[in-house]
Specification:
The protein is mostly helical. The protein has one domain: ABC transporter involved in vitamin B12 uptake, BtuC. The protein contains 14 helices and two strands; from the N terminus they run ααααααββαααααααα. The protein has a two-stranded antiparallel ribbon with strand order 1-2. A hairpin with a 2-residue loop joins strand 1 and strand 2.
């Protein structure tokens, strides 16, 4: 077996093994963890991270990163809230504007990265501050509430006994998988992340690919902001604070390379579930929030360290010795 094949095996199946061990361990250690009610609760909790993780996967496979996702959530949510309360817009129209605002911020991120050649970390760090500031300007630091009751269906409704946000997450993963695996755009995303210069020489419009992955990520972040607003029915300017770490950890844990050009959404889906199960299990076991932050920090460091040293780890694994009959 080649090092490359071994590398894929370790990254794709390692997270599945870890997830199963975590599920079994928490089923015994945390009372009520494996109950249907709690598992549905876990799925609802991870839905927002999962929605954004689809867009972040595209960004990171292309070789970038986006730190502005939490701020986009806040700006999109408070904008929708403001339009419903102060302008009387319908929930559908106000939610659509919030969703579109996420896309506009993503477009701005993509423009800075693809056209101005600002490093993704710096560009999205700047828009993280700008979008968060916009949320505070709109709300003046105060919560906004008093939306029509029907707006709560998006974040609190159910379909076939499964919360609607979970269905939205699954739809996002399905569309993302089609984009990555069945379209030329998906091949170009992998190509740009794997070797940007080679992709350019082969005729790929690198700037356009980079622009669109940030637009998609912005749209999904805006969608998550609207779903969160519908779930809590109150707009606050600090919504989505810290989502950057949760989403990036889930994506890297799911096998997406920090160097770009590598990763699959099925692994990211398991990474999202792993983060949700870990957080839920710690809450049931009585871990205070501060300790949960430390655990997330450790998980991110381990995931990134594993990603950066995967070649060394693969080389340490036993190789399959060919039989004489195969010679």
């Amino acid at each position: 077996m080649s090092h490359k094949a071994m590398k894929i095996d370790v990254k794709e199946y390692g997270i599945i093994v870890f997830f199963l061990i975590l599920m079994i361990g928490l089923s015994f250690a945390a009372k009520g963890f494996s109950s249907p009610e709690n598992l549905i609760n876990v799925s609802r909790q991870v839905s927002l991270v999962g929605i954004i993780a689809v867009g972040m996967t595209l960004v990171m496979i292309s070789g970038g990163i986006d730190l502005s996702i939490g701020s986009i959530m806040a700006a999109s949510g408070v904008t929708s809230a403001y339009l419903m309360t102060d302008f009387g817009l319908s929930p559908v129209l106000a939610g659509s504007v919030g969703f579109g605002l996420g896309g506009l911020v993503g477009l701005f991120n993509g423009f800075l990265v693809a056209r101005i050649n600002i490093p993704p970390f710096i560009a999205t760090l700047a828009t993280m501050a700008g979008a968060r500031g916009l949320a505070y300007v709109i709300t003046q630091g105060m919560p906004i509430y008093g939306f029509p009751d029907e707006f709560s269906m998006i974040g609190q409704g159910y379909f076939l006994l499964i919360p609607l946000p979970v269905w939205i997450m699954l739809l996002a993963f399905a569309v993302g998988a089609v984009l990555l695996n069945l379209t030329p755009f998906g091949k170009h995303v992998y190509g740009v992340g794997g070797n940007e210069e080679a992709a350019r020489l082969s005729g790929v419009n690198v700037a356009s690919v980079k622009l669109w992955v940030y637009v998609i990520n912005g749209l999904l972040s805006g969608l998550a902001g609207v779903v969160l607003l519908s779930r809590i029915m109150t707009a606050v300017p600090n919504a989505g604070n810290g989502f950057e770490m949760d989403v990036i950890t889930a994506v890297v844990l799911g096998g997406v390379s920090m160097a770009g050009g590598e990763g699959k959404l099925r692994g990211v889906f398991i990474g999202v579930l792993t983060m949700g199960v870990l957080s839920n299990g710690m809450m049931i076991l009585g871990f205070v929030e501060y300790y949960q932050w430390i655990v997330r920090c450790v998980v991110l460091i381990i995931a990134v360290g594993f990603d950066r040293n995967i070649e060394f780890l693969s080389a340490m694994m036993p190789k399959k010795i060919p039989s004489k009959a195969s010679n």
